[in-house]
Structures are given as structure tokens and as C-alpha cells.
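User: Please fill in residues for this 566-position structure.
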């Protein structure tokens, strides 16, 4: 009777040995991953405990909120994880969308408070529309005059400047010329579009200007999105109509609820509108509807917990991270210290990075993937460029800080520690990441899409604009958001370019000296008072981490949705 030989693996070894090694390797990787995650979680819990000080509350207060909020939400989370995964994703998105919307609301509120008034915003957008209209009109009237259109593109920012206040317009013309070593001798006063609007017999109120320039355009974009997804113009118009009705209703009801008109319009635009569109889509599809219970249970739990603790007289915690911390400037006293000016500086720095790094990075990626030659001498040069872009992504951040110090401060003589210098220095840091991520997104578009477009008679630019970029946009946005998440947490470049350790007043110009959240947190870490090093520092770290986590979560949602639809 023949006997069966034992199965062998590589080099004639017994298969049981191979399985044992594989299981040991799997267990080792699992243990290392678990150790890393648990270590980070413990560190975050330690910092959160210092920031929120939950155990300073009465035991009854903690027990009440545990019963009304933590236990129901934990039970729902376990149910979603074990039995209804689509509902878990819906719960995650519906809980995160309002948070992202409120962050955007806060960012635009800071923009209108510290940088621009609503009237200046209105005038600036009119200038942008006029400049864009000139570019489009020239392209239609003279489609073959590429050089003329290039001149129109370069001259259009001059039109945009007319939307700025007179003082900022004069700075743009005179001080910018002086920075370049020129003297135009401009001793006359230029009237900006803002002043021209003020000369009109009827000037729209702030809420009307916000409705026209912010609520309606974003509602129109949401309506167009709904119309394209459902192929129903009626549904798109319904979105626009309902958004406008809720916005106008809030103008009347907002003051009665203690909410300013401008804040109400921002909340409707960035929080209510996206959440409403998403929830309606979930209900219409009928998939994961149970996930909508998660935020509802959370809100009801907070309300019930507040009523019960108030009725029973339980005292809540005394946290370092509260509304006063987010809206106050730093102080010599830990109890009065806040992070508001640093938050404004970080928001303005991100604006500079988005306006400068995103167009350059995506443009470079488009050229390298769609236009750059792959053969010959130029092909070798392009390969060298791509290799160096990859190397630049690994250069230490302090080197980019030194580059910003040498280029923008020493050569261009821009103010040391200003927001424009910080934004450009940190923008250089993430530029290679934006280029690489955009290249990967463009490269992932199948060549069959390009060939089909060429077969229909489209030019290369038409193919890129109408086929490649729409398909690659989710991947580009994902990489860009992750890069911005790294940018907002960088400290070394800010130290090199001389960002202020702390400021009492929030900046109102991109050329103002300012502090950013990482720089302010670093400054608190060197204070002698233990309350700064533990309480205030922890509150600042949690604030920064909250922004980073929201940005990363947004990138993950975009990526997952792109992978499902791709």
C-alpha cells in the first residue's frame, strides 16, 4: 500500500513548519499594531483628561451622562459593527457632517470678522465674476487668439483688486511695486469697487449680500449635483428653493433664538444644506437608514442629561477647553488664556497655502502625466524632475523653514513672521506631496477613457478637462486634504521664519505678524506655570487634533466613496 508523502513547501520543508511561521508572523504584526494603537489611544486619553477634566464633575453628573449618552451610543455602535455595517457608515457621516460644517462656519466667520467685511466680500466676488467673464468672453469671441487670452488671464487679477478696500488696493499697487524695487509715483487715490457700491442710492444689507454671494451659489451647486445624480431638474430646484426658504426664515427667527443673521446663513450653507442632501439621499435609497438614529440618540441624550443634571443640581466639570478658550487671546494667567488669535492665523495660513500650492501642484501633475515627453533628452530631464520631487517629499521640514527665511524674508524683504511668509514656506513643504498624490490620481484614470475621448474628436486639453480631471478629482482632493492636515500641524518652519510666540490681537491682513496654533502650543510648553504646561497646553493640543481628525476623516470619506463608484 502506497504511503502519501508529506506536503513540502519551499526548499523541501514541511508545510506545517511554513504554517507555523506564517501564524507567528501574523501574531507578531497584530501585536505590534495593537501596541501602537493602544499607546496612541492612552496618550490621547491622558491629554483629553487634562483638557476636559471630567473627574472634576460630580459623580452624579458623570453617571447621568454615561446613562443617557455613552451607553446608548456604545450599544448602537456595537449593533452597527456586528449586524448593519452600511448603517454604521451612515451614522459616521451624519455625525461628522455637522462637525465639518460648523468648522467651515467658524472659518468663514473668522474671515468676515478679521479679514473682510461682508461688503468687501461682495465687492471682491463681483470683481472675480467680471474677471472670469472677460476670460470666457475672449475665449468665445477669439478662440484662436491664445496669446491674447494669456494676456487677459494675467491682467484679470488687476480687476479683482478693485474689490478690495482703498487702503488694501493702494498697498497692492504701491507697496507691491516698492517690494519689486519700482516706484510708480502713485500720489492719487484710487476708488475701489467697495466705495463705488457705497455711493449707490441703495446698498444691500449684509444678509442680502451673503444670500446672493454665498448661500445661493452653494445651494445652486448642490442642486446641480442632485440634478445630475437623479436626472431630475425638479429635485435640483427643490434643493435650491428649500435652502433659500430656510435661510430667509432664519433671518427672522435667528435673532429670536439668539443667533446672528450672518451666523445663521453660514450654518445653513455649510451644515444644514450638506446634511439635508445626504440624509434625503439615504432615506430615498433605503440603505443604512438605521444609522440616522445615532446622531438623534446622541442629541437627545445630551438634552435629557442636561435636564436631569440641572434638576438634581449636579455640578459639571471645569474644563480648560471651553468656549472662552476658543474665543479669547492668550494671557499671562492660565485661567484666562485662549487660542483665538492663533486659530485665525492658522486659518489665514491655510488660505494662502490653498491659493498657492493647490494650483501649482495640480498643474505640475497634469503636465508630468499628460504632456511631458517620455523619450529623448527631455524625457530623461522629466524623469530627473520626478525623482527630485519624490526626494523633496522626504526633506525635513526645518529645511523648508530655512528656505522661506532666505527667499521670502532675506531676498523679497517681506515681514518676518507674517502670514504670507508662513503660508508660502509651509506650502513649499507640502507641494511635493500634492504633486505626487495628484499624479497618482491622474494616473489611475484608465487609458480607455482618453482613447474614447480622442476617438470622438476631442483635443488633448478637452480630454483632460472633461474626462481626466473629473475622474481624478476625488483622488486629488483626498491627497490635498491630507497634505493640508500635515501643513496645519507643522511647527519647525514657523520657528525658522520667526512666527510670533503669542499675539494678543488676531491678524487682519496676510502681511501681519501672527501666531499659529502649533507655534502657540510650543510657546505654552515652555511656561513655568504648571497650569500652562498641563491644562492650557492640553486644550490647545485637543483643538489642533480635532481639526486634523476632521480633515483626515473627510479625506477618508471621499476616498471610500470614490473607490465604490470608481
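Assistant: Residues filled in for all 566 positions:
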Amino acid at each position: 500500500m502506497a504511503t502519501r508523502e508529506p506536503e513540502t513547501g519551499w526548499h523541501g520543508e514541511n508545510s506545517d513548519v511554513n504554517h507555523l511561521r506564517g501564524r507567528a508572523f501574523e501574531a507578531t504584526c497584530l501585536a505590534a499594531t495593537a501596541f501602537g494603537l493602544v499607546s496612541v489611544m492612552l496618550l490621547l486619553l491622558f491629554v483629553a483628561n487634562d483638557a476636559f477634566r471630567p473627574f472634576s464633575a460630580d459623580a452624579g453628573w458623570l453617571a447621568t451622562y454615561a446613562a443617557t449618552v455613552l451607553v446608548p451610543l456604545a450599544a448602537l455602535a456595537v449593533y452597527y459593527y456586528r449586524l448593519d455595517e452600511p448603517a454604521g457608515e451612515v451614522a459616521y457621516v451624519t455625525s461628522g457632517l455637522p462637525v465639518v460644517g460648523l468648522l467651515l462656519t467658524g472659518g468663514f466667520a473668522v474671515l468676515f470678522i478679521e479679514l473682510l467685511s461682508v461688503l468687501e466680500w461682495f465687492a471682491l466676488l463681483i470683481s472675480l465674476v467680471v474677471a472670469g467673464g472677460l476670460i470666457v468672453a475672449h475665449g468665445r469671441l477669439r478662440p484662436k487668439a491664445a496669446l491674447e487670452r494669456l494676456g487677459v488671464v494675467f491682467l484679470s487679477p488687476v480687476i479683482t483688486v478693485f474689490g478690495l478696500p482703498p487702503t488694501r488696493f493702494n498697498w497692492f499697487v504701491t507697496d507691491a511695486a516698492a517690494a519689486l524695487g519700482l516706484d510708480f509715483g502713485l500720489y492719487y487715490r484710487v476708488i475701489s469697487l467697495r466705495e463705488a457700491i457705497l455711493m449707490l442710492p441703495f446698498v444691500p444689507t449684509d444678509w442680502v449680500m451673503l444670500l446672493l454671494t454665498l448661500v445661493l451659489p452653494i445651494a445652486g451647486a448642490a442642486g446641480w449635483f442632485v440634478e445630475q445624480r437623479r436626472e431630475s431638474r425638479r429635485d435640483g430646484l427643490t434643493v435650491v428653493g428649500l435652502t433659500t426658504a430656510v435661510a430667509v426664515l432664519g433671518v427672522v427667527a435667528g435673532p429670536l433664538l439668539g443667533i446672528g443673521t450672518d451666523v445663521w446663513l453660514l450654518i445653513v450653507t455649510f451644515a444644514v444644506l450638506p446634511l439635508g442632501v445626504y440624509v434625503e439621499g439615504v432615506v430615498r435609497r433605503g440603505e443604512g437608514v438605521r444609522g440616522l438614529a445615532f446622531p438623534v440618540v446622541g442629541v437627545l441624550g445630551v438634552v435629557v442629561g442636561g435636564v436631569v443634571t440641572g434638576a438634581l443640581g449636579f455640578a459639571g466639570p471645569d474644563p480648560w477647553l471651553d468656549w472662552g478658550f476658543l474665543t479669547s487671546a492668550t494671557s499671562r494667567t492660565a485661567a484666562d488664556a485662549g487660542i483665538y488669535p492663533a486659530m485665525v492665523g492658522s486659518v489665514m495660513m491655510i488660505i494662502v497655502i490653498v491659493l498657492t500650492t493647490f494650483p501649482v501642484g495640480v498643474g505640475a501633475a497634469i503636465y508630468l502625466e499628460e504632456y511631458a515627453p517620455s523619450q529623448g533628452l527631455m524625457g530623461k530631464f522629466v524623469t530627473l524632475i520626478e525623482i527630485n520631487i519624490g526626494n523633496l517629499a522626504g526633506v525635513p521640514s526645518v529645511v523648508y523653514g530655512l528656505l522661506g527665511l532666505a527667499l521670502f524674508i532675506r531676498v523679497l524683504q517681506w515681514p518676518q513672521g507674517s502670514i504670507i511668509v508662513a503660508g508660502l514656506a509651509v506650502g513649499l513643504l507640502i507641494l511635493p506631496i500634492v504633486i505626487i498624490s495628484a499624479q497618482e490620481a491622474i494616473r489611475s484614470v484608465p487609458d480607455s477613457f482618453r482613447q474614447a475621448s480622442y476617438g470622438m474628436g476631442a483635443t488633448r486639453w478637452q480630454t483632460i478637462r472633461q474626462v481626466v480631471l473629473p475622474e481624478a478629482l476625488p483622488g486629488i482632493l483626498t491627497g490635498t486634504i491630507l497634505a493640508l492636515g500635515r501643513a496645519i500641524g507643522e511647527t519647525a518652519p514657523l520657528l525658522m521664519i520667526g512666527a510670533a510666540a503669542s499675539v494678543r490681537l488676531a491678524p487682519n491682513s496676510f502681511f501681519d505678524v501672527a501666531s499659529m496654533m502649533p507655534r502657540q502650543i510650543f510657546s505654552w510648553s515652555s511656561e513655568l506655570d504648571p497650569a500652562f504646561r498641563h491644562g492650557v497646553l492640553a486644550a490647545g493640543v485637543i483643538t489642533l487634533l480635532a481639526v486634523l481628525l476632521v480633515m483626515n476623516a473627510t479625506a477618508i470619506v471621499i476616498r471610500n466613496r470614490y473607490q465604490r463608484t470608481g
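For context: The CA atoms of residues 183 and 320 lie 51 Å apart.
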